[in-house]
Every structure is written in structure tokens, then in C-alpha cells.
Specification:
alpha+beta; 6-stranded antiparallel sheet
Length: 381
């Protein structure tokens, strides 16, 4: 009885691999066409464009996994039905439940491969792809007109907030350096204490258990004296301007936090997303977008099982001339619909502040309900 599960696993695996290869080739072609318009600009070569597209393929493959599993399973089961093999399996005593178990066991292997792809391979490849592109074009990364903004908190030994710092970096480079710094520092009563401007900053990793620091150059700091609101007399203290050629600036901000915008949230790893969500929460910033992306990373590979369950009813449909092609077309449309549903719920979740876990799980639950209803209808026929 182990022959049938192995045969199904092989057929579904081969079909899914072929579908993923075809989809990946199509997307790679269109991404390369989009990169060609940058070839020749600022030293950006065709070789760098090809390398950038190649490095972005793992992230694209991760996104296509559920669709590929759906179409591959539909094709494999439809081919078995067209060759009357599926009919023989049913006559030999294979029930719908047993078929579902065999198919989902194959799905578990694909889910494990998807987790590995999404956590170990795709995120560093995506970062390297962006790095290759920007270095080849001799460009720096500027996400907003004013640069990248971040919030930093300075705490005492007992955890009390002493100061708040709002940091603006105009240009972030891929070599862990940044230029055109502006740092606005407030006390715990939100009174402005200083404004710092630096020409350049280079990150230095922690050594011997010490804190991470930025080495800022050409620093100009304007220190603002504290003036009590109830004071009626002229303050004795005056604004002080301090100029330094170099300063060591201690902060919890890292190039990974500044560069988090270099990679879209859905293409980051779960560990990086969890760390950034924690950073946002500690600094009392909205983290909805990244929390939704984190839960999507947890739930998205499991959607492969849902999509393969959705493919099961296609095996029981009567095969006529052109039936396999129609089933594959239906699978493509269902896969596209699921992808769009995921994106729709992600945007609605951010706009309406829905619970992130609900936003991530709801599309899969809807598709699973449809799959179970279709299987129930087939069993009742």
C-alpha cells in the first residue's frame, strides 16, 4: 500500500517543480525587462542586472510556492484521472480521506522547503540583490525626500526613559555608513535639549561586550538650555554651539534598522521582522505593517496545504476533451485570486487596525472553507 503514496508524491512533486520553474522563468523575464531601462545609467551593466534578477529569484519563488503547489497538484491529479489511473485507485479502495492524507503528506514536505527558503535563503539573497544593484549604479539609498527617520530611546540603568532622540539620515549606503545626519534630542518631558548635525557616520560593531557605536564626523551640536514655563526673568543660560571633528555616538540603532526599508517587509525573515517589531514597540511607534508581515511569514507556507486541499475536488471532475487544460486554467485563476486576497487583507488590516493574526489567517480560512465545501459536495453526489 506504500506504492500509491510514493507514486502520488512523485507525480505531484514533479508537476509542482515544473510549474514553479515555468512561473519563475516568466517572472524572471519580466523583471529583467524592467531592469534593462537602468542598464547604462551610472555604470549599471547588463551583467549586474542579470545578477540582481538572479538573486531576487528565491524571494519570488517563495511567493509562488502556494500557487505552484495548487497548479501542480491539479495537473497531477487531472492527469491521473485522464489516464483512468485515478479510477483504478478508487476501485481498489482508496477513499477521499486517504487521498487527502497522502496529498497533504506531500504538502508537508513542500511547506518545510518553503520555510527554509523564506528564512534562510531568500532574505540574504534579496539584500544582496539590492546591494549589487545600488553599488553597480554608484547610488545611495534614500527612501523619502528627507531620508530615513528613526526614533531612539536613552534609558537609565533601571529602565527609566531619560531622553528621546529622533534621528534623520539623509543617505544610507550599503557599506554600513550614512551621511547627512540630523539628531533631535528631547528630555523625558519632551523639551528640546539639543540639535546635532553630522556630515557622515560609520557603524562600529560591539567589541568585548561593549555597546555598538556610530563614529560621526564633522559634528555641529546646538545645545538648548532648559527654560521653565513659569519663569518670568531672563534665563542665565544661553544656547551653546559645539563643533567636533569626530564623535562617538552610542545608540541602539543599527544599519539593519536603518536599512530595514531596503527590503520590503514581506521579503524579510521572521527573526528580522520580530526584532524590528520589538524595536518599534519599545519606541512606541506603530508596528501594524510589520506585525502583519510577521504573521504572514508564519502562516503563508501553511497555505500550501490549503491550496493542495483545494486541488482535491478537481480529481473527481469528469474528464472530457480539453478538461485538463480547463482545470489548469481554473487552478491559475484560483491561485491568482488567493494571492490578491492576501494582499487585500494585508492592506485592509493596516487601514482598519485589524489584529495581525486575523489578517494573516483569514484568506487561508476562506479558501479552506471552499475546499471542504467542494469535497463535501463531491462526497454527497
Amino acid at each position: 500500500m506504500n506504492t500509491l503514496p510514493r507514486y502520488l508524491r512523485r507525480e505531484i512533486g514533479l508537476a509542482t517543480g515544473f510549474v514553479l520553474f515555468a512561473l519563475l522563468a516568466i517572472f524572471a523575464f519580466f523583471e529583467l525587462v524592467g531592469e534593462l531601462e537602468n542598464v547604462g545609467l551610472n555604470g549599471y551593466t547588463l551583467r549586474a542586472a542579470l545578477f540582481s534578477v538572479l538573486l531576487s529569484l528565491p524571494s519570488r519563488l517563495y511567493e509562488l510556492m502556494p500557487i505552484g503547489a495548487l497548479i501542480g497538484t491539479i495537473y497531477a491529479l487531472s492527469k491521473l484521472a485522464a489516464n483512468s489511473e485515478f479510477t483504478i485507485m478508487r476501485v481498489s479502495g482508496m477513499s477521499t480521506r486517504r487521498l487527502a492524507v497522502w496529498v497533504l503528506r506531500t504538502g508537508v514536505l513542500i511547506v518545510a522547503a518553503t520555510y527554509l527558503l523564506g528564512e534562510v535563503i531568500a532574505p540574504p539573497a534579496e539584500r544582496l540583490a539590492r546591494q549589487v544593484k545600488f553599488e553597480a549604479m554608484n547610488r545611495v539609498i534614500t527612501e523619502f525626500r528627507s531620508g530615513v527617520w528613526a526614533r531612539d530611546v536613552v534609558r537609565s540603568n533601571d529602565g527609566t526613559v531619560e531622553r528621546l532622540r529622533f534621528v534623520n539620515v539623509r543617505e544610507m549606503r550599503t557599506d554600513a555608513t550614512a551621511s547627512q545626519w540630523r539628531i533631535f534630542e528631547f528630555d523625558n518631558q519632551f523639551r528640546l535639549r539639543s540639535m546635532l548635525v553630522a556630515e557622515r557616520g560609520a557603524y562600529e560593531a560591539p567589541a568585548d561586550g561593549g555597546p555598538a557605536v556610530w563614529r560621526l564626523t564633522n559634528v555641529v551640536e546646538t545645545r538648548v538650555p532648559v527654560v521653565e514655563p513659569a519663569a518670568t526673568e531672563r534665563a542665565a543660560a544661553t544656547t551653546e554651539v559645539v563643533r567636533e571633528g569626530e564623535r562617538v555616538w552610542v545608540s541602539e540603532l543599527t544599519p539593519q534598522i536603518f536599512g530595514v526599508l531596503l527590503v520590503r517587509p514581506e521579503r524579510m525573515g521572521m527573526v528580522a521582522l520580530a526584532q524590528y517589531v520589538r524595536h518599534l514597540e519599545e519606541n512606541r511607534q506603530r508596528s501594524d505593517l510589520y506585525e502583519i508581515a510577521l504573521w504572514n511569514k508564519i502562516v503563508y507556507p501553511l497555505a500550501i496545504l490549503v491550496m493542495m486541499a483545494l486541488a482535491l475536488p478537481f480529481a473527481y471532475l469528469h474528464v472530457r476533451q480539453g478538461g485538463v487544460s480547463m482545470k489548469i486554467f481554473s487552478g491559475v485563476m484560483l491561485g491568482v485570486g488567493f494571492y490578491m486576497l492576501n494582499k487585500l487583507f494585508s492592506h485592509l488590516g493596516v487601514l482598519n487596525t485589524w489584529p495581525p493574526i486575523l489578517v494573516a489567517v483569514m484568506p487561508s480560512l476562506l479558501v479552506l472553507t471552499i475546499a471542504l465545501a467542494a469535497l463535501y459536495w463531491i462526497e454527497r453526489r
